[in-house]
Amino acid sequence: MNATEVFSTLTIALLIVPLVLAVSLKEPKLVVYGFLVAILMFRYSTWGELQPTETIYARGVGIFHFSLVNLALFVAGIATLMRKLANPLNPHLAAPLAPYFFSFVFMMLAHIALGSIAGIDLERILEYEGLINIFNMFIFMYMVVLAFNSEKDKRDLLLVFLALAGIRSLFGLVRYFVFDGDTANPYRNLEGMDIKIFFFDIADNFVAAVAAFCAAWLLLSPSVRLSMTKRLFLYGYLALEIAAIALSFRRSSLIGLALTFGWLIFLLPSRKRIPLLILGAAVMASTIVVFFQERLQYAGATDIVSSLIYDITSNNTGDVDRFYELRAAAASLDGNWLFGLGSWGRFTGDQELLAFHMGKFMFVHSGFGHIILKSGIAGLLIFCGLLFSYIMFYLRHRKHLVGNSRLLADAGFAGFLFWTPTLLIGTPIIEFRTMLLIGLCLAMPYVAAGVSARKYYVSYPHYAAA
């Protein structure tokens, strides 16, 4: 990084920190919207690029340990805490997240203390390949939940999300048909497959999936009355978002989309399920056929089913199966299953079989596996406890929600379902953008349910102080 870049980065940092703090204290929704623009519109992953590229999420790394976007998140989180402490009569946070948040903070402090005693640099303990992005997720969840306090806020949040998702997909559409698709294309650039893709970053597929869910929810909800113009617009919007996922050719995205719409079908009245199941099956079948023809034909398998799992076993090729990495990580945990290897921990294995790691063994391709590697069963219990609490909260409160509140809660839960394959076999924990989007999913049902709770406490403020 040259002197000009260093100076410009420091200048931006000096401007961002007080600005974010001031706006977060006065207009917290604006800061959340700012982060939404960043995480909905700008990619994180550059895997598959032929030339090294820098995203907005890497700006400032090298001068600071954390990126400027991450530093802004920390400042906004501090402002959120200050606002909460400055007004103790505010209603208690609807989300029962405090036990999991403080348990995670305690664990991270323990990692810092034990790592320092062992002579590990603080930068390694707090590296992005560790657990810091779970902390970032918690911060963003609290920011979202505490920023939106009215029915208008919920409606605006939905509209902003849908508008940004539409803009992002239109950008991808133009790029796909006019400029040969996403330049981050490992299928073509690294594996020699003659295909172009809509989006490679799984987070872009998530945005499209939740947007598609919202459009379908509005079209199918018996309580929503739409004009013909709005209905036609939503059909076009739905087709665009599904195309964005189908033409990205990512199996985890297709599975996530199936889970998302499977939940929508489950929520529908029984009389509407069968027609939608037939339509959904036809769309998925068509997508899988295109998927097979454009990508999985290169897997060397003879049928669609075997091609979908070609890299899970070594039957079709002489390569190692996909799960060798996890077995190698499990072997490295010998004697450390309870608390893991620490945020700085690395695993070891056959260098040739793990060549795709390029010598970096700080993470594994499983979100849950990554948590176990770094923090053991204890860390996994904290994370899974958070997810279980979230699921129970959503299921318990959904039946009491109507209108935009129900759509917001359903969309958040559908988004969580989309992420489950990635949590199982992807690398979400080491990706800043992904973890903030997961945090958004987790926050949405609490925002939906929290507004009515706030109304109650405004009417009876003595309960808020209890």
TrEMBL record:
Q: Looking at the keywords, is Protein biosynthesis present? A: no
- Note the topology in the membrane: Multi-pass membrane protein
Q: Name one Pfam family in it.
A: Wzy_C
The record's annotation in InterPro entries points to:
O-antigen_ligase-rel_domated (IPR007016)
**Ranges in a coiled coil:** none
Which keywords does this Swiss-Prot/TrEMBL entry list? Ligase, Membrane, Transmembrane, Transmembrane helix
Q: Does the keyword Mitochondrion apply?
A: no
**What compartments host this protein?**
Membrane
**Where are the membrane-spanning stretches?**
6-23, 30-50, 56-81, 93-118, 130-148, 157-178, 198-220, 232-248, 254-269, 276-293, 371-395, 407-430, 436-453
* Residue intervals of the O-antigen ligase-related domain: 238-384
What GO MF terms are annotated?
ligase activity
Q: What is its main location?
A: membrane
The name this protein goes by in its record: O-antigen ligase family protein
Q: Which taxonomic lineage is given here? A: Bacteria, Pseudomonadati, Pseudomonadota, Betaproteobacteria, Burkholderiales
